[in-house]
Amino acid sequence: MEEYPHLPEYADSYIVHLQKKDRTKSTIKRYYYDLLDFFAWVRVMKDNDDLHSIQHLDALTLNEYFLFLSEQREYQPATTKRVFTVIKSLFSFLHSRRKIVFNPFSDLELTLEENIQFSDDDFISDEEFKVLFQTLSSYEGLTEKQQKYRHLLIKRNEAILSLLYRYGITLQEITNIEMKHVHFTQQELTVINKKETRLISLDDDTHQLLYQYKEDIPESIRPRTYSSDRFFIAFDYQRGTYRFDYGKYEPKPLTVIAIQKMLRQEIRRSELRDGISSQHLRRTAILNLLKEGKSQEDVQLWFGLKSNLTLNRYEAYLETTKMKKVYSKAND
């Protein structure tokens, strides 16, 4: 967001169009910030937010954005639908002005209701995770500059992926982790979601990854012990080191957008199926805990879910999977 403080020119034209229709200032402001957020995501997905990139957004890709809002940002359905309306209106405007040839919203159904059933493609398999995790330490497909500093980022990225897959922590929660939240001696992690706090126990592998990542950061710019410095910090490829904000005199935090971009690049390098995202990792973590026989109340508390309604979809998927196995065994 910091690198792109303004909307693309064609989106500015849309805002002007709304102003001419005498929309209230509060409505214009809300549309503006919804669109800023959307274009930040587009740049992660397409590396650009020009009209060419917008034209090549299909219904499946757009739907991933709304799933990101509901599952990662934990937006209420009403809020997600509001954002859906804003972006749909933008695309209709562009299509009516012949800025884009095809409007993908004509093929898009908002599949955010609680009764939508999961399929196998909504999760990531153990084998897919292993391939993705191994890719993080691989140098294949990297530019010369990326290869030069890769060793400094491996443990950071492995730690993030481990937290996503094993504990289902959201991207926002990861960026909220401060140094004082990581309890190395107790092997625990405090996770904060808005005003809610939960404490999770770390397995040995994840605990070691977090510690090794911290130790890889030069001591002069390392997050200070027991401080409110963000634990996961951004990397500067130009200088070949982690970023430090000398104005605030603290390490520069890693952003949600930066993590999304990292994941997308690594998934692409791993040559896994299209569409895998952080949502798949979180869903799989939730599913695995339910498979272990944990109650819905325990799972809701563990993942910081606002209600247990979402868990009904997971239970339905597990039941369907169980029935498929029974049917398959009966026909062997």
From TrEMBL:
CDD domains: DNA_BRE_C (cd00397). GO terms for biological process: DNA integration; DNA recombination. SUPFAM superfamilies: DNA breaking-rejoining enzymes. Coiled coil: none annotated. InterPro entries: CB, DNA_brk_join_enz, Integrase-like_cat_sf, Integrase_catalytic, Integrase_recombinase_N, Tyrosine_recombinase_XerCD. Gene3D superfamilies: 1.10.150.130, Intergrase catalytic core. Keywords: DNA recombination, DNA-binding. Residues 119-328 form the Tyr recombinase domain. GO terms for molecular function: DNA binding. Residues 5-95 form the Core-binding (CB) domain. PROSITE patterns: CB, TYR_RECOMBINASE. The keyword Glycoprotein does not apply. This is Integrase. It comes from Fictibacillus phosphorivorans.
